[in-house]
Design a protein that fits this description.
It is built from 12 helices and 10 strands. It is of the alpha/beta class and 306 residues long. It has 2 domains: 6-247, Phosphoenolpyruvate-binding domains (TIM Barrel, Alpha-Beta Barrel); 252-300, no CATH class. The chain is globular and about 65 Å long. The structure holds glyoxylic acid and magnesium ion. Residues 35, 96, 131, 155, 157-158 line the site of magnesium ion.
Length: 306
């Protein structure tokens, strides 16, 4: 799957932001029909998004659109419109507030029908936002509900509301939370999402960091998500994209260490040994798997040649 280190979310009703997003360095763009769109703009936003999908040059970007919850009067209409008229560039629909695998089954069937109707050969993917206690509880069923699933996304704001957690920051996680709880407040939810995503061959994506004037907080938030195994994070402002692309890419130091691990292990194996030493640390087959994974990722991102 193509990398999704940074996913720029843009309000569906503001066309000029779509153009800017299409030219941005984000790996992916999410045209939003849900929470960034006021209720009186829901119908016009749908039309604006379809127009942008059809008319803009999205280059090599992954292009997605978030529908309204299937529990609302808007969600099913968004889904039908995107499925029938979503342009040939739409890679995935993003479904918010997925509480049950039935949400994914419903979208899967509807997309299949629309693809048959349109003669599309490339299936439209699904991204499921896990942002409620019910969704987190049913996450394994959700993750296995359709081959179309590409990512599981952690919606920290809605999740906090769903479990009645104390509101300490408007930025998601990373701001003012360090002293509140020993450890990371969202470790369980994020790790649960990461574990389930990886068990099903999906990517795990973290929700955005709301304070777009605070790169240090964003760095903290993204680094924690990356350390827990997330593949990327939403951005709500173009200024956040470069930082996210950097945090979710292997650093030069990581790449150098991985190269030395792979070389030392090859050398040890040639001498008939199962373990070797790098920087005074014992490395074995498990360390090599980690190093190989990092190397492959660096290769995919064009950071190393062979
Ligand atoms: C995202 O949708 C969130 O609720 O954080
Ligand atoms: Mg949400």
């Amino acid at each position: 799957m193509k990398p999704r280190r940074s996913i720029l979310s843009v309000p569906g009703h503001i066309a000029k932001m779509h153009r800017k997003a299409s030219q941005s360095p984000a790996d992916a763009v999410m045209l939003d029909l849900e929470d960034s769109v006021p209720v009186n703009e829901k119908d016009s936003a749908r039309k604006t998004v379809i127009r942008s999908l059809e008319s803009l040059d999205w280059g090599a970007k992954t292009v997605t659109a978030r529908i309204n919850s299937l529990e609302t009067a808007f969600g099913y209409r968004d889904l039908i419109a995107l499925a029938e008229k979503g342009g040939l560039v739409l890679d995935a629909v993003v479904i918010p507030k997925v509480d049950h695998c039935a949400d994914v089954h419903f979208a899967d069937r509807l997309l299949r029908g629309a693809e048959m109707h349109r003669g599309l050969t490339r299936p439209i993917g699904i991204e499921a936002i896990i942002e409620s206690a019910a969704g987190l509880e049913k996450i394994s069923e959700i993750a296995g509900a359709s081959d179309r699933l590409k990512t599981l996304v952690f919606g920290v704001a809605d999740y906090s509301a769903s479990i009645g957690a104390r509101l300490v920051s408007l930025s998601g996680h990373g701001e003012k939370e360090e002293t509140l709880y020993p450890g990371h407040r969202w470790n369980f939810a994020l790790s649960r999402i990461v574990m389930t995503a990886k068990a099903h061959g999906l990517m795990a994506i973290d929700a955005p960091y709301g304070n777009y004037a605070d790169p240090e907080g964003l760095q903290r938030s993204a680094s924690i998500a990356c350390a827990l195994g997330c593949d990327g994070k939403w951005a709500i402002h173009p200024s956040q994209i470069d930082l996210l692309n950097t945090v979710f890419s292997p650093s030069a130091e990581d790449i150098d260490r991985a190269r030395r691990v792979l070389e030392a292990y090859d050398e040890a194996r040639a001498k008939g040994r199962g373990a070797a030493s790098v920087d005074g640390r014992m490395i074995d087959a498990a360390t090599v798997r980690l190093a190989q994974q990092l190397w492959d990722r660096a290769k995919q991102l064009g950071l190393v040649k062979s």
